Amino acid sequence: MATDGNVTITKTFINAQLPVFICDLSPLQDALDQASQAVKELQLSHPASTPSNVKAVYMSPWKSHTLNAKLTPLCTAVTNLARLGAQGISGSDLAALNMSMAVMDCWGAVYQSGDSALRHNHFPADFAAVVYLEAEAGCAPLILSGHAPVQPRPGMLLLFPGILDHEVPANDGRRVVVAMNLYKKTTFAPSA
């Protein structure tokens, strides 16, 4: 509950359906391999784990895509898929609306046994994305909206609205991910 002094806003949960997209990125193995290499290099160049709701053995800086160009092919692929997902949600082509998708935040995380991520969302991002570079059999699922588990597989992309709450229970095994926040941006220049 929050107030601006005159009006109070209360958070309420209703049974609303939000779209979730799952893609197999194995045809983009080169981009996945480069991203895996980038996470390894980031662990060496930026060894301190970034404090966040991710309680993993390692999390790279929020803007890792600006620190290691090997994340660029994966970011480009995810951006293109998010554009298609946005079209599937609204039936409108973002380009026709003078808009595009852009990765604003990108980070890698390495989960070992016992690691987790607290329940959170990525608001105000339009989309959140998780790409599973490694996912040992039996590793923890990503739990969407407190009750919908998605079991990760290597090469899987999970793309969902940034407002959607999600969490990772205590992990059993190893999983390595690259996560991203994507935002719509305008592509037209204002007239002078």
Could you write a compact summary of the structure shown?
It is built from 3 helices and 13 strands. The protein has helices at residues 29-45, 64-67, 72-90; strands spanning 2-3, 8-9, 21-24, 54-55, 58-59, 99-111, 116-120, 127-135, 142-144, 148-150, 156-161, 166-168, 175-186. The protein starts with a strand and ends in a 6-residue tail after the last strand.
As residue ranges, the low-confidence spans are none
Query: What does the oligomeric state look like here?
Result: single chain
Major sheet strand order: 3-11-8-13-6-5
Tell me the number of helical segments per DSSP (H or I, 4 or more residues long). Answer: 3
Shape by Cα distribution: globular
Share of β-strand residues: 25-35%
Global mean pLDDT: 91
Number of strands: 13
Approximately how much helix is present in the residues?
10-25%
Q: Separation of termini?
A: 42 Å
How many whole angstroms does the radius of gyration measure?
17 Å
Largest sheet: 6 strands, antiparallel
Label the structural class: alpha+beta
Order of helices and strands: EEEHEEHHEEEEEEEE
